[in-house]
Amino acid sequence: MPGVLITWSAVDPAPQPVIVPPHDAAGQRVEIDGESISIHEWRGSGPATLHVHHEDDEVWHVLEGELRFRFRDRTEVTPAGSTVFVPAGAPHTYESLPGARYLIILTPRLRRLIAELQSTPHATHADVYRRHASELLE
Known about the structure:
Elements: E1 5-9, E2 29-33, E3 38-42, E4 51-53, E5 58-64, E6 66-71, E7 75-79, E8 83-86, E9 92-96, E10 101-106, H1 108-118, H2 125-131, E11 134-136
Parallel strand pairs: 1-2
Antiparallel strand pairs: 2-3, 3-10, 4-11, 5-8, 5-10, 6-7, 6-9
């Protein structure tokens, strides 16, 4: 049975609180885009290269499995139940290990950055990062 996608957008005519009931990988998937934050349930890895967001914080909460984060000075593996906060200006990248499912909490600018990166050739990514107050470091 396919999962149910729970979505909400700040453009809804009558903003209402969103409560997502407990669920698992086979159930619902979360996509919430507000005026100042976006919360998305994801699987899969981020960009393989170290990068920095100069003006935006980013947060991950691991629901299942593990994520591997690489920072400028260390690598950390974060198991289910872990929350990782990367403040603006902190170089990072991450990898989703097999079976991982997580929430990513980001600003609308970072949501737009990711969408643009997914739709443009890799050769243009440095410029895409710059347009979104971010930078590739490798």
